Amino acid sequence: MAIVGYGFIGLGILDYLLSSMGVDITGFSLSAFIFGSIGGIFLFLGKSKDKVAEFDGSLDKGETLLKTGTLSVKDGMTNQENGTLVLTNIKLLYFCPGKSDYDFELLLEDISSVETKFPWKIIIKDKDNNEFKLQTFVGEKWKNEILKAVSSTD
After folding, report:
1. pTM check: above 0.90
2. Distance CA 50, CA 58 (A)
3. Per-residue confidence of the chain (154 residues) as pLDDT tens digits?
4. Three-state SS sequence of 110-127
5. Looking at the 3D structure of the chain, how many domains does it have?
6. In the sheet where 111-117 sits, what is the strand order?
7. Which residue, 1, 24, 47, 125, has fewest beta-carbon neighbours within 10 Å?
8. Do residues 34 and 12 touch, judged by C-beta distance below 8 A?
9. Do residue 33 and residue 97 come from a single domain?
10. Is the dihedral of CA 144, 135, 1, 95 positive or negative?
11. Domain of 139?
């Protein structure tokens, strides 16, 4: 994915340079920005996928990967980061490909509740009453998968 991402970024730079010399290759004024943005998305998704593959290779004996997905952690009105949520039959963890203050790892037995607010917001509470607020387009599916995994550990 990184090659595709860098290719789109390179295409955006080329489009910008050519348009500054008067040559328009797309007929659309924001195409350089769009190419660069698409490239950035591919780079982000590639880093997340690499991290999941690395994690998948380091599972403990008897641990199986149940679900992974890209989602956001939002803190307040302006602080938001995108990362990956990983659910195994033993734990739930969130990580961001870069440096993150929001990374967490919870054993399923330590999760006390999982609820959704609106279809896209998931709130997970642990036994110490810490809250982990996540956002995804498929919040209800994540909630059901987490509850199913938690109930199978009982």
Report:
1. no
2. 13
3. 678 888 988 988 998 898 888 888 888 888 888 888 888 887 776 665 555 555 555 677 888 888 888 888 877 667 778 888 889 899 998 887 766 778 888 999 999 999 988 878 889 999 999 988 888 888 888 899 999 998 887 6
4. HEEEEEEECCCEEEEEEC
5. 2
6. 104-107, 91-95, 79-88, 65-75, 131-135, 121-126, 111-117
7. 24
8. yes
9. no
10. negative
11. 60-153
